[in-house]
Specification:
Number of strands of chain A: 2
Helix content of chain B: 55-70%
Strand content of chain B: under 5%
Structural class of chain B: mainly alpha
Number of strands of chain B: 0
Number of helices of chain A: 10
Number of helices of chain B: 13
Helix content of chain A: over 70%
Shape of chain A: elongated
Largest interface: A-B, 59 and 50 residues
Order of helices and strands of chain A: EEHHHHHHHHHH
Largest sheet of chain A: 2 strands, antiparallel
Largest sheet of chain B: none
Radius of gyration of chain A: 19 Å
Shape of chain B: flat
Oligomer: heterodimer
Radius of gyration of chain B: 31 Å
């Protein structure tokens, strides 16, 4: 449980952000502590660059403060649950889109994580083959079109429900499920191709 | 059940979101549809293996940067710090508890201060020189940071300029350049705030006025409008009319533009 300005305790980031929207900026520190890791990972999985992911995560917190007045603090109960995530990821997506517009001319991301997976120290339960397989899967993920990769990152890695992703993307949960299936199918095709390439 | 519906249910199953009634329905479909059954097996396995991709970790630099940002935005007294706070200072045990001794030490400090103050005029020139050097270094650091690729570093550069007593023309020029061309909305907004010290300069007003119709962010547009109204810059009327004529202008900005036009036309 976090303590914000004036000793008021808040249970959720929704309540903290509502307080920030009312001018109590101290709650931002608790929000940062709870959210900087997931945000960094979201950006890292989409850009594959450590420094860029950190820059973008930091930028999201700045935008949260800048646009705090746009946070709909009055939501309660079921509506409030997940409201903060939806708002935060909408900001994150806009931040990423702004970044992508500016960086179009840049070269494709490096293979840092791919190499780190392939050369990671094996645990007793891991084999070299499994690590190679994981590296191929990660490469397949990176070769997915941006929108499909983003969808799988939100679903599989960020721990968001289809309902929450629907709120972020502005569509029904059912639509998200259909799109996730198609993204998985395309991932499967790319992965199979990469496996064949490796085998030949 | 149609295959398209079964595919949605498969996605729900992978995410552990399959409702009670849907599970047997999906099971029945998979028993009768070979294609869906094969996809369920192959893609379900892939879904599980995705979780094995290691989770990356942010560096400590992100925390440091955030603390620095937060401290510049909020008085440190209201920020619950991540660091454990030491509530005693190293020589706390040497401080006497008796009020009489405390008063004596305070008096001694006062006398030392008076003595040091009496000798200060001789060092005024040196201190002034030191101040100049600090200002010059600060300017150099700010200009250098404003050239960095990282928006956060450029933001730090703008923050540095805010600490300057007076702004040299190079700094003002770098800030107006940032307002006009910086890709980060936050840097542009911070630069507009920093330029409030130079609001009397006709060059600054002209540059900001010219950049107004080219801005794509409603936040920056609003901040520039406020700046020009504050500066009572009637020369900005043309740019404001040009902005108001933009067809896709944000309604809040349009309202603010009309307000500015009324204010400056008086």
């Amino acid at each position: 449980m976090g303590i914000a300005n004036g000793g008021i305790e808040y249970d959720t980031d929704h309540e903290r952000m509502a307080a920030v929207a009312r001018g109590d900026l101290a709650g931002m520190n608790e929000i940062y502590r709870n959210r900087h890791r997931p945000l960094f990972r979201f950006f890292y999985r989409l850009t594959n660059r450590q420094a860029t992911a950190e820059d973008l995560a930091h930028e999201v917190f700045l935008r949260m403060i800048r646009y705090r007045h746009t946070y709909q603090a009055e939501k309660e109960g079921a509506e409030a649950a997940g409201a903060f995530e939806a708002w935060m990821y909408r900001i994150a997506r806009n931040t990423l889109a702004d970044h992508a517009r500016k960086q179009r001319h840049e070269v494709a991301p490096g293979e840092g994580e791919l190499e780190s997976i392939a050369s990671a120290r094996p645990t007793p339960f891991e084999t070299a083959a499994k690590r190679q397989d994981l590296a191929l899967l990660h490469r397949a993920l990176r070769e997915l079109p941006d929108d499909k990769r983003e969808l799988l990152v939100l679903t599989r890695f960020q721990g968001l429900s289809y309902e929450q992703i629907g709120r972020i993307l502005g569509c029904q949960a059912g639509t998200v499920k259909g799109r996730v299936f198609r993204a998985m199918k395309e991932l499967g095709s790319i992965y199979s191709e990469l496996c064949k390439e490796k085998a030949s | 059940m149609m295959c398209s519906h079964a595919k949605e249910l498969m996605a729900a199953y992978w995410q552990r979101e399959l409702a009670g009634d849907d599970q047997p329905a999906l099971q029945r479909h998979l028993e009768t549809c070979a294609e869906c059954s094969a996809e369920m097996a192959a893609l379900g396995g892939l879904w599980e293996r995705l979780a094995d991709i290691p989770a990356p970790e942010p560096s400590q630099a992100l925390n440091v940067r955030w603390q620095s940002t937060l401290e510049s935005l909020i008085p440190s007294s209201v920020i619950p710090s991540n660091k454990p706070v030491s509530r005693t200072w190293p020589f706390a045990n040497l401080w006497p508890s008796s009020p009489a001794w405390q008063a004596a030490i305070a008096l001694a400090c006062l006398l030392i201060g008076i003595f040091a103050g009496a000798n200060l005029p001789r060092q005024n020139k040196e201190i002034a020189k030191l101040h100049d050097e600090i200002a010059s270094t600060r300017e150099m650091v700010a200009l250098s940071l404003l050239q960095q690729q990282s928006a956060t570093e450029r933001l730090r550069g703008v923050d540095y300029t805010g600490r300057m007593q007076t702004m040299e023309p190079e700094v003002v020029s770098a800030l107006t350049e940032a307002v006009a061309h910086d890709p980060s909305v936050n840097v542009r907004l911070a630069a507009i705030d920093a330029l409030s010290k130079a609001s009397g300069s006709p060059g600054v007003l002209q540059s900001l006025t010219q950049s107004l119709p080219r801005q794509d962010s409603p936040m920056v547009q609003a901040a520039l409008i406020d700046y020009l109204v504050e500066a009572r810059d009637r020369k900005a009327l043309g740019a404001l009319r040009q902005l108001a004529a933009q067809p896709d202008l944000n309604p809040a900005v349009l309202e603010r533009t009309h307000f500015a036009l009324r204010q400056l036309s008086r």
